[in-house]
Amino acid sequence: MDYLDTTIDDVIDTFEFLDDWEDKYRFIIDLGRKLPPLDASEMTEETRVRGCQSQVWLVPELDDAGTLSFRGDSDAHIVKGLVALMLLIHSGKTPKQILDTDAKAILGQLDLSAHLSPMRANGLFSMLERIRTVAAEHAA
Amino acid sequence: MSQLDTLPKLDVAAIRADFPILQETVHGKPLVFLDSAASAQKPECVIKAEVDLYHHYYANIHRGVYKFSQDATEAYENTRETVRAFIGARSTRECLFVRGATEGINLVAQAWGRAFLKEGDEIILSEMEHHSNIVPWQMVAEEKGATIKAIPVLDDGSLDMEAYKSLLSDRTKMVAVAHVSNSIGTINPVKDIIKMAHDVGALTLIDGCQAAPHFQIDVRDLDADFYAFSAHKAYGPTGIGVIYGKEDLLDKMPPWQGGGDMISTVSIEKTTYNDLPHKFEAGTPNIAGGIAMGAAISYINSVGFDAIEAHEKAITDYAMAVLGRVNSLRLIGTAKDRCSVISFVMDHAHPHDIGTILDRQGIAVRAGHHCAQPMMDRFDIPGTVRASFGIYNSTDDVDRLVEGLQKVVDIFG
Q1: CATH number of A8-139
Q2: Is the CB of B27 less than 8 angstroms away from the CB of A21?
Q3: How do beta strands B122-126 and B147-151 pair?
Q4: Residue limits of the Aminotransferase class V domain (chain B) (predicted)?
């Protein structure tokens, strides 16, 4: 996650200084812009997490040390920023650590948890489900 | 006097006062509701019609000999007459109550399609159809070995009528098209479409969801065989709608769902069916919804379609003009005949981004494919932002939308 040049804790700290919704969204959008786009060949039916209004792609990778990392992308800027947040929250952890992570609580600290509701059409909820499914498969 | 002065005026402030929800704020901003094409807000009289039933005279209908059952039956069946007059049907027997247009289309696809479609028959739809006027036909076509063809859409968002003509043949058994496109607002020439279908012996179903709230429908003038609309897009409640069908066709169609209310006599060996419209209305219906749908139509009638049409045309024309000047915005669908729906995309932001930034400013629009994916494919876009107008919108709402879009340009531009 070096390319994002930050950690989820830094993001939470930064957010405390941003009181305006617009600044928060600008920050999220900038975070998304730092996320390297997936190669077109990686945007397959298999990696696609379908949403009604925007699409998300997620590529999981397991390294030799047994930690999972994820790369992701979206066709919408704000969602891509939220994808970046989700990657910050989950990447570089063991499957067990991922399953112990409460992403919704972390997004709640950022006042963004509404984006994670099951009915939200942006694909983020499905993305979280997929991250946890992949973690569960590798934790077994 | 200019022609404008003679048009019936709509008092938008008075109308807005009828809709309690319009007093709400969203993220601290007064609500600008521009998603009536998805579902319209409800006036107090519609809300009250439902509450009054439950407070004062609720009982199941079509069965009781006691007063409340009779009162509720009368109120429910009064709506049927209101609906009949609203769409110009010959008889209330032609006005079936269903959950909404989706169920109405499924009813025709199943009851008519399964009885009368044969292998090799063709059903003609259009590229601009809502999924609810595609999928039911695909389901029955697959079962019966029929084929589906689609009328292409031209660049301006109107139907390619030359192509339609060439699709028609003696194999065509059903032509099912939208009266008004839900995704881009084109008003289709359905009277011509119906006439051309009848000339080859085909039947027609018109999806009138986006027409019913906006202008007068006359199923007899159109000569439509079936016509569907949902109450909730016409200021009425959810879970109720109408499928109109010509009586001789409905008579020939077998029932779709079995249950109470749709029967005449039942023995374990044999059931005889009730008369129209009840033959197609199995089970206890949406009683409160039916009664409130009547209130919604009466409300529309009290405002009057002359005033509604003039008002909504003025707003739509104004919106087309001012939105066209927003930096990097491209309108999708610019057909001459259009109605209360404007769709657009912007260069630097995805529809989802635009919808999110507008939401933060208290502006509700729809962002996405609008349940019309073939239409989005036609224009090679993932979706659009759709602003749609109802009787309670004003040019102030359009101005707020334009301001909101300036913010989108600031953030993403």
Answers
A1: 3.90.1010.10
A2: yes
A3: parallel
A4: 32-401
N-to-C CA span, chain A = 25
Q: How far B405 CA lies from chain A's nearest CA (Å)?
A: 13
Which chain A residues are Cβ-neighbours of B353 within 8 angstroms?
76-79
Q: How far apart are CA B169 and CA B197, in angstroms?
A: 9
Question: How many residues would you count in chain B?
Answer: 413
- Among residues B198, B32, B189, the alpha carbon closest in space to that of B126 is found at B189
What residue spans of B109-224 are helical by DSSP H? 113-116, 135-144, 161-167, 190-199, 219-222
Task: State the ipTM, two decimals.
Answer: 0.87
Contact B152, B113 (CB under 8 A): no
Task: Please list the alpha-helical segments (H only) found in B184-286.
Answer: 190-199, 219-222, 247-252
- Selected residue of A55, A57, A77 to mutate for chain B interface (largest B Cβ count, 10 A): A77
Q: Which domains does chain B have, with CATH numbers?
A: 3-35+304-412 (3.90.1150.10), 47-301 (3.40.640.10)
Q: Is B371 an active-site residue? A: yes
Q: Is A27 on the interface with B (CB under 8 A)?
A: no
- The DSSP-derived string for B58-79 is ---SSS--SHHHHHHHHHHHHH
- pLDDT per residue as tens digits for the range A1-42: 667 788 999 999 998 898 888 999 999 999 999 999 999 999
For chain B, the distance separating the N- and C-terminal CA atoms, rounded to the nearest angstrom, is 45
Per-residue pLDDT of B136-169, as tens digits, reads 999 999 999 999 999 999 999 999 999 999 999 9
Contact A77 B412 (CB under 8 A): yes
Contacts of A76 in chain B (CB under 8 A): 349-353
Instruction: Locate B57 and state its tokens.
Output: 């005279």
Chain A CB within 8 Å of residue B157 CB? no
Residues of chain A found within 8 Å of residue B386, distances taken between Cβ atoms? none
Beta strands B203-207 and B172-178: pairing type?
parallel
Token couple for A21: 């919704």
Residues 312-371 of B with CB under 8 A from A: 349-353, 355-357, 360, 367-369
Secondary structure in 3-state letters for A100-133: CCCHHHHHHHCCCHHHHCCCCCCCHHHHHHHHHH
Sign of CA dihedral B115, B116, B122, B125: negative
**Model confidence band, residue B1 (pLDDT cutoffs 50, 70, 90):** very low
User: Could you say which DSSP state residue A49 is in?
Assistant: E
Q: Do the chains contact at B350 and A25, CB–CB below 8 Å?
A: no
Rounded Cα gap, residues B216 and B306, in angstroms: 9
Distance CA B35, CA B342 (A): 10
The alpha-carbon radius of gyration of chain A (Å, integer) is 14
CA–CA dist B50, B237 (Å, integer): 9
Q: Which two tokens stand for residue B389?
A: 């107008």
